[in-house]
Write a structure and sequence with these properties.
heterodimer, A: alpha+beta, Aminopeptidase, eight-stranded mixed β-sheet, 3 helices, 24% helix, 31% strand, B: mainly alpha, 7 helices
Chain lengths: 179, 185
């Protein structure tokens, strides 16, 4: 059975393809649409990978990204550890809950599983994959939980907006010879 | 003087030394290798400025350092000063080539000048990552303790995956070419 989605690495030549990207009208949803239109190419120059996910019919379903950051221990002289991060992932509003059928076949599951597989390839960077969720985005929290992400203690307060983001973590497994 | 100011002043001193190295006595007779040494210093200094700029942009992007307009002005001024000195140096190049034949690495320095002009023409100040996940952050004690436990456990081949790995296929090259031609919806 052919895959319902294919992956294309994002590039400047594909900028027009995302010009109409829309993943909802809430402020945090518009922020995600703006990210792929305005920030993604610049972020790629700083080492983050960004992919578009399309149907064989060339319809853009969503995008995903994978990067890296450092988390510091509270002690000023303490260590810092690299953590893999999904900076942004989104699905076009019209494609939410699609295709019909089992949840593991939905676009959201396929895209997150692909990002997890990519992160697993890079587990030498860090065996942990994190992400931050806007507190209003409860729908996304459920999708992440289904993909295997667990809530993590850490929250982050954006000083500019006062929004307190929740974090979630996925424990990657080390690839074995049979993977 | 804070650390940032000291860092700036050390680069400033390098720029001044570069300018003084050949402008103090421009009429003095100099060997070809002496000019070539100055060119090597110019190239190295340009790379230093680029590295320093990139490091500053990264710190602002990651939220490690807050953006300050003074830093933005200072970074641009460093490139402008380097460019002015280097353009004056390169203005002598035809005469030097007439006198010595080929001057080693002069073309490389010309390339740096082109890069510096492009950089200043398209200059945009850095800004904090909009995606909060890419910002560096300090954990609360409880989160740090939890992370220690996760790190000890994660990445262990014996840890069963919550799901089997599923990877989507990469699009064929002609698919991507078509996308690049696709008109905006």
């Amino acid at each position: 059975m052919p895959s319902p989605l294919v992956v294309v690495p994002f590039s400047p030549a594909l900028g027009e393809l995302v010009a109409g990207f829309s993943c909802g009208d809430e402020p945090h949803e518009r922020e995600l649409a703006d990210w792929i239109k305005q920030d993604a190419l610049a972020v790629m120059q700083r080492g983050t990978s960004v992919w578009l996910f399309l149907t064989e019919g060339r319809d853009l379903i969503g995008y995903g990204s994978l990067g890296q950051t450092n988390w510091h221990w509270p002690d000023p002289a303490g260590k810092k550890v690299p953590v893999q991060i999904i900076p942004a992932v989104a699905i076009q509003r019209a494609c939410w809950g699609k295709p019909e059928g089992p949840r593991e076949g939905r676009f959201s599951s396929l895209i997150l599983d692909h990002l997890i597989a990519e992160a697993t390839d890079r587990s030498d960077v860090s065996p942990l994959l994190g992400l931050f969720v806007h507190p209003a985005n409860q729908r996304a929290v459920k999708v992440y939980e289904r993909a295997g992400f667990a809530p993590y203690w850490h929250t982050y307060t954006d000083r500019a907006t006062g929004v307190i983001y929740r974090s979630m973590i996925y424990e990657l497994r080390r690839l074995g010879p049979g993977d | 003087m804070d650390i940032s100011a000291k860092r700036r002043s050390s680069v400033r001193r390098q720029l001044e030394a570069y300018e003084e190295s050949w402008k103090q006595d421009p009429q003095a007779a100099r060997a070809c290798w002496d000019w070539e040494d100055t060119i090597v210093v110019g190239i190295a200094l340009f790379r230093l400025l680029r590295e320093r700029e990139d490091s500053w942009r990264e710190r602002v992007f990651r939220g490690v350092e807050e953006y300050a307009e003074d830093d933005n002005q200072s970074a641009q001024a460093s490139f402008r000063d380097w460019l002015r000195t280097t353009e004056e140096l390169l203005a002598r190049l035809p005469a030097l080539e007439k006198e010595f034949g080929m001057v080693e690495r002069a073309q490389e320095l010309c390339h740096c000048v082109d890069q510096a002009r492009d950089l200043l023409a398209g200059w945009a100040p850095p800004r904090l990552s909009r995606a909060v996940g890419l910002r560096e952050m300090t954990l609360a004690p409880q989160a740090a303790a939890e992370l220690d436990k996760l790190l000890a456990r994660a990445g262990n081949a014996a840890t069963p995956p919550t799901r089997p790995l599923r990877r989507l296929p990469a699009a064929a090259p002609d698919f991507v070419e078509d996308l690049q031609k696709k008109p905006t919806p």
